[in-house]
Amino acid sequence: MVGVFKIKKKNNDFTAKVMELSGENINLCEQCGICTTSCPMADDMDITPSQIMHLVKIGDESVLQTEAIWFCASCYSCTVRCPRGIDLSKVTEALRAMLLRKGINKVELEDIGEKEKEIPTIALVSISRKFTG
Q: How far apart are CA 37 and CA 27, in angstroms?
């Protein structure tokens, strides 16, 4: 028996918007997984960096509901190692910007409080970047 898969229609507008905001050509991603193996935050993410790229590439807006886009520390480990030269941190920043423009914010600096000692410094820097964009 052949399984039945529900295939979503590609949302080209979503992919184009992410490419416009990030300045990155997502279509260059060949899903090699180097971004995931390079990411110091990957173990804490609900989906991997390569899955983020895949969802954006196929136009699946459900990527906006993942926690992973908020975990990106913008450390550029993925960018430095990407064989296609894609800056995934710019892609996650674009995704966060899309949500912030709608008033959706997953992390408030004021709410961190005592958790600050548990959060890597680079993550705190990344959280603060939304105030500069």
A: 20
Using alpha carbons, select from 57, 53, 60, 55 the residue that is nearest to residue 79: 53
Structure-token pair, residue 44: 């804490």
pTM score, two decimals? 0.77
Rounded to whole angstroms, how far apart are CA atoms 71 and 118? Answer: 14
Question: What stretch of H or E contains 132?
Answer: none
CA distance 99 to 77: 24
| Pair of tokens at residue 6 | 């529900």
Q: Residue 70 has what pLDDT?
A: 84
At residue 102, the pLDDT reads 81
- Give yes or no for a contact between 96 and 39, defined as CB atoms under 8 angstroms apart: no
| pLDDT of 71 | 83
Q: Where along the chain do its domains lie?
A: 12-19+29-131
Tell me how far apart the terminal alpha carbons of the chain are, to the nearest angstrom: 51
